[in-house]
Amino acid sequence: MLQHLEKSSADTAEAMTAARDSLKTLPDEQAQSIDRLKEMNDKLQAALKVTGAMSAVARRQLALIEEEQGRQKQEREKKPKIILLSGRLDLKSESTERPWIESSGPNYITYHLRVVNGGTLSPKDSSLRFSILDSDQARVSLTCQSQPCFESSEVLTGPREYFLALPAISPHNFIPVSVTVTFPPGRAPFDFYIYWLQPDLPDEFVGRLRVNPPKP
Predict the structure, then answer these.
(1) CA 81, CA 51: separation in Å to the nearest integer?
(2) Domain limits of the chain?
(3) Is the entire prediction scored with pTM above 0.70?
(4) How far apart (Å, rounded) are the C-alpha atoms in residues 64 and 67?
(5) More confidently predicted of 145 and 163
(6) Count of other CB atoms within 10 angstroms of residue 93
(7) Nearest-CA neighbor of 189 among 130, 139, 134?
């Protein structure tokens, strides 16, 4: 019985010693764990800084690419746009307003037109084509900056056509065009259809000029 008590007391003392030693090492283990966590946090923060820097560079590169693409798109979209005006009247509109007449007589009318470049690029080697569907004894004289037009010699039947070469017109500027139409006295009203011609592009309708000869 005594031996059993002595052994139990020795076991208890040994357990208490082990527990005391374990409690002594606990702060060291906690400190090591905190150090490991701090090291992991430092590595994570460094990785985040590198990732952030790379993201900033990538965003900047993307912004530069988008800026260049936008500039190239604007360059591609640059083109001339011819608008034909008589006073404030756009000859392409369906307005019933009459064009601006400079002078008239029993057998002629002279109109004052403006060829406006409403686009973002100057046209090159372009011209205007005036077509009369009913050409019975009607004639046209066109003058653009002292440059007369010429009549097509290829059209023997059908619409009579006249061509006027245009100089380069800078964007948002215009040139004046004087159009004189001659006809027999008492002739019925008739129309001119006007097209803008550019190399390698379809002809573009830019206006209709309604000619109303004076009544006798």
Answers:
(1) 49
(2) 1-77, 82-211
(3) no
(4) 5
(5) 163
(6) 11
(7) 134
| Domain at 82-211, CATH homologous superfamily | Mu homology domain, subdomain B (2.60.40.1170)
Residues 106-130: tens digit of each pLDDT:
888 989 899 999 998 888 889 998 8
What would the two tokens of residue 36 be? 């490991």
Tens-digit pLDDT profile for residues 58-88: 777 777 777 777 776 766 667 889 999 998 8
Q: What region, left, alpha or beta, does residue 145 occupy, with left being phi > 0 and alpha being psi -120 to 50 degrees?
A: left
- Residue 162, amino acid: Y
DSSP code at position 145? T
The SS3 of residue 12 is helix
Question: For residue 82, what are the β-bridge partners?
Answer: 117
Please state, in angstroms and rounded to a whole number, the distance separating the CA atoms of residues 79 and 200.
14
Query: DSSP string covering 32-96, please?
Result: HHHHHHHHHHHHHHHHHHHHHHHHHHHHHHHHHHHHHHHHHHHHHH----EEEEETTEETTS---
